[in-house]
Design a protein that fits this description.
Layout lengths: L3 H10 L5 H14 L2 H12 L12 E5 L12 H17 L2 E5 L3 H15 L5 E4 L5 H11 L4 E7 L3 H10 L3 E7 L16 H22 L3
Parallel strand pairs: 1-2, 1-4, 2-3, 4-5
């Protein structure tokens, strides 16, 4: 995964007989740091068609996405997932299920949002899982009914959908936290750290999907 990919290749190139590698790495680094590069990697993941299989979902399962030191304990990606999950749960009078190791932070944020938005929703917490596989595995143990709304970032949905399906869930996917933009900007060919971060997220998901294939999922 980049940036480790670049570091190791540059170390090898420093011996002198792989100078072309340095040039190719520079091109690759530039490509991954542009809006065009990030868009080409993200678009197939974020817009992948995933059928709605849940007829009457009983739960809204929100996948955790990390925490920080902001006024809201969860980071921006996790907060966007949570707000979408709360909206879906309210609309369909369903139970919200938050799954992830940062559940203790989610409890504080959910309490704050419910009070601020005048919501009263039943919430279940699964706080043992460290990755998406465990999200699905542990939710399968605590949820007696398997029809769910699944809420996560759009780039992460294809992998999450496959894993929850593997553990017997029938899913209506709810994508949020999109990273692609409706149109390319004038600066689409200029490198920016935000675009490199988006490319990294896409790489992470492609590697994750390949790992599922290797595991027969």
């Amino acid at each position: 995964m980049p940036p480790a990919l670049f570091i190791w290749a540059l170390l090898l190139a420093s011996f002198g007989y792989l100078k072309r590698v340095m040039f190719l790495l520079a091109l690759l680094f530039w490509f991954l740091s542009t809006q065009i590069g990030a868009h080409l990697l993200l678009e197939p993941l974020e817009n992948m068609h995933l059928p709605k299989k849940a007829v009457n979902p009983h739960y809204v399962v929100v996948l955790g996405g990390g925490y920080d030191k902001g006024a809201l304990p969860l980071n921006a990606h996790a907060t966007e997932r949570l707000i979408m999950g709360l909206a879906i749960a309210k609309e369909h009078n369903a139970t919200l299920v938050y799954t992830g190791y940062e559940a203790k932070y989610a409890k504080k944020e959910i309490a704050f949002l419910q009070k601020s938005l005048d919501l009263t929703l039943p919430v279940l917490y699964e706080d043992r899982s460290l990755d998406t596989y465990q999200n699905a595995a542990f939710c399968a143990k605590i949820l007696p009914k398997k029809e769910i709304y699944l809420v996560t970032s759009a780039v992460h949905m294809p992998r999450a959908y496959r894993l929850f399906t593997h553990f017997g869930f029938r899913i209506t996917p709810v994508k949020t936290d999109f990273r692609t933009k409706p149109a390319l900007e004038l600066s689409a060919l200029f490198p920016k750290m935000d675009y490199f971060d988006a490319s990294y997220a896409a790489f992470h998901e492609y590697v994750g999907l390949l790992s599922l294939i290797a595991r027969g999922i």
